[in-house]
Amino acid sequence: MSAITQAANTLPVMEEQQQYLTFMLSGETYATSILRIKEIIQYGQLTEVPRMPDFIRGVINLRGAVVPVIDLSARFGKPPTLVGRRNCIIIIEVSTESETHSVGVMVDAVNAVLEIPANEIEPAPSFGTDIRTDFIAGMGKINGKFVIILNIQHVLSMDDMATLATVHSHPTAELS
Q1: pLDDT exceeds cutoff 50 at 30
Q2: Which phi and psi (to 5°) does residue 128 adopt?
């Protein structure tokens, strides 16, 4: 797993990124660029935070830093991820206008780092997926099958999540 971190740190940012970490989520394979991935850790030792939206599972202590952990399945509007032996937390750096934050993303299992040539990536479809189209950077072809390549910056948008957290922490603002 440290090889992923090393690979992410040695690649120049200007270069067209073609390496992606693939992972499983609700029986589907997804991918994200390795450029923003800091590390992958085993799932565990989460502290729940009261009055947070369902997709925020809690926080972890990562070498003294408090890192929120997002359940990607719940973030996509699907049932929350069931915790099992293979669950992992992918630590990803997310940039806002003025700063960079670390966010943990809970997934069912991590598969591999793969190279997907740019000519094997199709644009995001405008329909037919279970997740918001702005969350999809493209559809990569791996061994004849399509893999959803996530636009992790949109998926983990701090503004978007702060808005959702506000709605969930004020019961009168909920639509139920």
Answers
A1: yes
A2: 90, 5
